[in-house]
Design brief:
Length: about 70
């Protein structure tokens, strides 16, 4: 019984660790903040571009373009 319980606990812990989001440190310098803002703006522009080309009735559009005004 002890082996099964410890195996079950191990599986639960591995599953919980697998669902965790990786840690990303906040920028500390002005340069780092500028790079982060620029990256976010590029990603948003790319998302808008892709959403403009997708069929509005498709499942991919619903999944990836929620909240995009077109």
């Amino acid at each position: 019984m002890g082996v099964r319980a410890s195996a079950l606990i191990g599986l639960v812990l591995m599953g919980a660790a697998g669902g965790c989001v990786s840690y990303e440190a906040e920028p500390v310098s002005v340069y780092q903040w500028e790079r982060k803002v620029e990256r976010i703006q590029r990603e948003d522009a790319e998302r808008l571009r892709i959403c403009g080309t997708l069929d509005k009735e498709s499942a991919r559009y619903e999944r990836e373009c929620a909240g995009v005004k077109s």
